[in-house]
Amino acid sequence: MGQAEWARDLAERLLAEPLPRRWAHTQGVAARAASLAPILGDEADTLTAAAYLHDIGYSPELVDTGFHPLDGARYLRDVAGADERLCRLVAHHSCAVNEATERNLYDALTREFAPERRELADALTYCDMTTGPDGRHLDVRERLAEIHSRYGPDHLVSRSITASTPCILAAVQAMQGRLSRST
Q: What is the number of other CB atoms lying within 10 angstroms of the CB of residue 110?
């Protein structure tokens, strides 16, 4: 069994029943990741696995700090024995460092998990930030607006997304450039 299959099974167990909408989003993110295989080569399985795992920290079983990238990455490292790259991708997905700062968890995040290679991190951000909550493709700006609408303007997630917008847009643009050059 490859990493992606293992990750799918784990994410389904943690998300499908308690958080069906989050599971739909996760499946959509993983499908987008799998579609990048032609440009990712050997890293396609790692990206698809990270896509399945990126939101497991929302699982009621795993919530500790309330910051899902850190909770998910810690679970992967400490309980599931996951590959270090997967842990780093989950910990830092979609420019998570800004939300970590808002939650006073920056030191914990950066001390425990180094960022992953930029190209792979950008690919995961691209997949996450172009997939809506129901798993369907969305333009990145629609996705950012959806997040703001869901949380409201004063919520720390909205503030974090505002701070992360340049990073998110750069990641999406970088991946769109790679995709256009590959055709």
A: 15
Spatial separation of the C-alpha atoms in residues 131 and 137, rounded to whole Å? 5
Neighbours of 136 (CB within 10 A): 11
Amino acid at 83: D
User: Which pairs from 153-162 meet CB under 8 Å and 24+ separation?
Assistant: 156/99, 156/102, 156/103, 157/99, 159/102, 160/98, 160/99, 160/101, 160/102
**All structural domains of the chain with their residue ranges:** 3-182
Do residues 108 and 73 make contact, with C-beta atoms less than 8 angstroms apart? Answer: no
Range 72-97 average pLDDT: 98
Distances in Å between the alpha carbon of 84 and those of 34, 77, 80, 148? Answer: 20, 7, 11, 31
pTM of the full predicted structure? Answer: 0.96
Q: Which tokens sit at 11?
A: 């994410």
